[in-house]
Amino acid sequence: MKKIRVLMCGSDLTHVKGGMVSVSRNYLESEEWKNTEVSYIATHREGASFIKILVFLGAYLRILRRLLQGRIDVALLNVSERGSFFRKALLMRLCHRFSVPVIFHHHGAEFNDFYRLLPDRKKAFVSRVLSEADLNIVLSKLQEKDILEKAPKARVGYLYNSIKIASTNRYCKEAVLLVTFGRLGKRKGTYDLLKVLHELDPVLPPCIKAALCGDGEVDEVRALIKEYHLEERIVHVGWTEGKKKEEYIEHAMLHILPSYREVLPMSILETMAYGIPNISTRIASIPEVIEDGVNGFLIEPGDLEALKEKILTLSTDTLLRLKFSQAAYEKTAAKFSLSSNIAALEKIFMGLTGKYSGDQR
Fold first, then answer.
1. Reported pTM
2. Among candidates 294, 266, 253, 290, which has minimal Cα distance to 171?
3. What's the rounded Cα separation, in Å, for the pair 23 and 8?
4. Three-state secondary structure call for residue 229
5. Cα–Cα distance, 255 to 38 (Å, whole number)
6. Which residues, 6+ apart, have CB-to-CB distance to 184 below 8 Å?
7. pLDDT digit string, tens, across residues 197-231
């Protein structure tokens, strides 16, 4: 059987960080694909405006060349908000000129805010683009509803993010590290976490440390650590990947993400797959993953007292941590494995490639 040639587009995998990049890497590195050949072209890179424009123009020309050569059967476009959405709209219309079906894979945590602030003319454009996509894949039931509110005629389906699942729960019950992975800043609740750690500092055992593993507002975070006199408590601030990230995961007691806006954070899935209990907020798709009091704790965004209470409870109750750990591991193994995600995607690709006859290309 001839393999379906899928072109995936998104941010530069080397120079851009975040959950969307993690998802793309997992797909590209996976050996689970049976009927699909996946390739990747970066359409975005962080930097000055002229760099972004040059990267996109170069990508556009490479995609056009592949289309002219008939080397793309399906386009899978990773999309968030603002510039990402408008870039992918251009690519979708290019692909449709060659009768290549297009999937918008939505990852944007701020898409609703982006849409709300647009003038009516641009809102209408967004609605048309969403409706023109052959399929909009979102990360949760809630996000599916959000898309349909903006574009009632859009074709939408949800598919949770996924991760590689270890064969056993690898959680270390002697772990003493509080970790947070992802972008640092107000949206992620980083400043709330620091305030709570400042208040807990006199009562937490000295052996319990915290690692803030992310990019974003790093300088502001470091200044606040100094102001709160948390230099002895915080062992790392900044982006972490590779072996260093694995080391922090291996020694993690808890993963804490008190976010204000999210979709479905990869950091929660990655840590739960390792058996690490999570404390996060009751927003977006997070409650579809973390079951409060079953495999982790959920709080309301900005509820510092609740955050403090939950950290203190889990950091002092080993039996509860172990209970949450096993439940977290089992939940991710059952619902968020990369193999089941890829199998679902391959069914989607096969359905879409039957939509256009060969002589149209």
1. 0.79
2. 253
3. 11
4. coil
5. 32
6. 190, 212, 214, 215, 216, 217, 218, 221, 237
7. 999 999 999 999 999 999 999 999 999 999 999 99
